[in-house]
Amino acid sequence: MSINHAILGILSWKPATGYELKKIFVESSIMYWSGNNNQIYKSLSHLLNEGLVGSEVVHQDGSPSKKIYTITDAGVKSLKEWVSSTPELPEIKNTFLVQFAWADLLSDQELNDLILSYEIELKAHLIMEKEIARRTLHNPDRNPREKAIWELISENIVSSYDQELKWVQEVRRRLLEDNNNGRKIYELPN
Fold first, then answer.
1. Of 70, 90, 133, 171, whose Cβ has the fewest other Cβ atoms within 10 Å?
2. For range 39-63, the mean pLDDT
3. Domain 3-83 maps to which CATH number in 2.40.160.210, 1.10.10.10, 3.20.20.210, 3.30.70.100?
4. Please, which residues have CB within 8 angstroms of residue 98's CB and are 6 or more apart in sequence?
């Protein structure tokens, strides 16, 4: 994901400070980004220099001044061009799959513990994503189509975690039996 495009997208919804942008990134499931505050401000500076965003300093009584960023017409045009470009396929970066690839090095109990811990994490994340979808904290709701789009995004995220949970449960089930000779590969703990 391009942080510049995500910033333009957020600013097309509402004006925001750099701090507010960071908060939206941290709390959002769809705008995955692992950068730091400096990266947001670098991107804002770049977007400002390119004329894609504008800024206004707002003075506050008893608080420090804050800089509020807004998207310009050129920024809306740039965002629309990006949105209408050919989408990239999702990247599958799943650390568990890398661990699992060499899980034969583990004892039966260690393998079971690995799978169980991943399953527990997935269940917790699934609950969290359902709650995020329910609250719709950072979803624009300017018209019915936009609301439907954001609901579909939330459904995609929830279904991804749900599918991964089903897969890991199938992994546990299939590893219970060695299909080649019918013997149990490992026993589940009671």
1. 90
2. 92
3. 1.10.10.10
4. none
DSSP E strands in the chain: the ranges are: 53-60, 63-71
Query: Hunting for tokens 């109990």 — which residue is that?
Result: 109
- 171: which residues sit within 8 A by CB, 6+ positions away? 100, 115
- Indicate if the pLDDT at residue 74 is higher than 90: yes
Residues contacting residue 31 through CB under 8 Å, at least 6 positions apart: 1, 6, 10, 24, 25
Q: What phi, psi does 27 have (nearest 5°)? A: -90, -5
So where are the chain's domains?
3-83, 95-175
**pLDDT > 70? residue 129:** yes
- pTM for this predicted structure: 0.71
C-alpha distances in Å from residue 164, one per residue of 73, 125, 136: 41, 11, 23
For range 20-46, the mean pLDDT = 80
Task: Give residue 190's pLDDT.
Answer: 47
Q: What are the residues whose beta carbons fall under 8 Å from the beta carbon of 55, sequence distance 6 or more?
A: 44, 48, 67, 68, 69, 70
What stretch of H or E contains 170? helix 144-175
